[in-house]
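The data layer described in this paper is built around a simple, fixed record for each protein. Because each token names a local backbone shape, the row as a whole describes the fold. We quote a single record here, exactly as it is kept in our systems:

***
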Amino acid sequence: MQYHAGQYVRWTITRVRGGDTESFDESAAAGVDVPEGPEVALVEFRGPRGEYLPICTSKGGGKSVAGHGAWRCYDGNARSTWQARMCQVITFGLLDNVFPVASYRFMTGGCPARDPTEWSVETSHSIDGPWKTLHAVSASRTVPTQR
């Protein structure tokens, strides 16, 4: 994975285990209907020396299940989850943009059918871009279902 400094990180989820989103258009922030969208309990970003890069805000995340907005995936509580009704583009604002994003991790919720299986992670100094790709994962890769 490449390192890129930026105040914003955009995570585009284009496929979940339980649904196919071949017609996904990332320019449409509303996303594409799938049987159920992603369920994510935790998202974290780290710098090159492993330092935690705190998230201070998010934009997007689309139509969430009531009480499960996008902020739930970075509230520090792995038992609360962001639950979207469709695949989404979500943009996170980082509190400190001095360090480049070197790695990320996320924890899924309790439903394997809602696990993201295809996504990209990008950074930018502006919420409007331009965006630099850090990492992209295709569905050809096996995503574990073990909880």
Observations:
- Residues 58 and 117 are 21 Å apart (CA to CA).
